[in-house]
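Journal club prep, shared notes

We agreed each person brings one worked example of a sequence with its structure written out as tokens. Mine is Phosphonate transport system permease protein. I'm keeping it raw so we can talk through how to read the token line rather than staring at a rendered picture. Sequence first:
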Amino acid sequence: MSTDDGRGDNETEGTGAKPTVDAKNTPASDGGVRNDQASDVPTRIREQFENIKQTRRRRAVGWVALAGFLAFTTVQAFAATELLDPDARLGTFVDSLSEFFPITFYFDVIPFLDFTQYISFMRHENLLYDPEIGGLLFQWPPSTADIYAFFFTELGIFQIFGEAGITLAMGFVGTMVGFPFALVFGTLGSERVTPFPFNFIFRGTMSFIRAIPAIIWTLIFIPFLGLGPAAAATAIAFDTIGNLGRLFVDELEEIEDGPIEAMRTTGASKPQIVFFGMLSQVRTAFIAWTLYIFEINVRIAVTVGVLGAGGLGFIVTSQQNLLQFTNMMATLISIFILIISVELFSQRLRSRLRADDIEMSLWELITGFPRRMAESALK
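Then the structure, token by token:
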């Protein structure tokens, strides 16, 4: 007994009817596509090409609009800073250079920069060397009593460098005092150590410290410690807590989980995991960041010295007030020598922390600088 489905199949076979198919999707006998489907390909390509051209036009219009906005904003900024004021001394800039760079004519013909005026002021104001303190150390024959007085009575390791030594000491004290607090706040501020939202207490404290510049911190501490290096060093220490602590937090967020999980499986306590599983991974980075912050703190010490905190910054502002621009330039040269010396020392220490770097002595680092600059320029 046949069913309807069977009857339907027989009828289909008997009549020779074929199921309808979509002509557009039917492949041709030679493996290609039909003409009507092939005709759609150029249309789609043209549409895509038009879309690409429209996108490029919109981007071009956007860049032009951005350039116009920046140009308009720049003009507004120049007007706000009074650089467009016709009374500005830009026209006398070249004439003013002679006040900073004294020129001496040899044989009344050849102009030379008179460095003797700079050196004379540096020696007179003890910008880079204090002969009274240095005389205790550099003498012949050496005196045991004077050497003992230099290290333990006068405490002259920094004072031997004169005003530059005071600036260096402010940056060093700020780094040393701020480092342990930055380490604690940076470690507890990491979500890997302290769960959210409790870690935000330490993050918020560091953000608050960073929001206030070091020069403002100096003004805050002047009523408590007086106008001098003590207030400046304390302000730099506070600034170090905010800046260095934030760098420590970022380093802890990028550590690997493998050593931490391994210590947890052994039953280690939370302090053991933090010290041996986390801080051990970032020890080298922490030292490198501390040296970098020390470089910045020396620059900050120059800045806060302008307020009267002492050091080279105070000499700069005092000579500027006296309109002694040649002496001011001599102080700026002393600042440059101090900053470069600190950077070379810091770079030397950081290079020893990186095992893949070729070790160079400090002398090789200084004397080989022109050669390395030439090699970099030729690359």
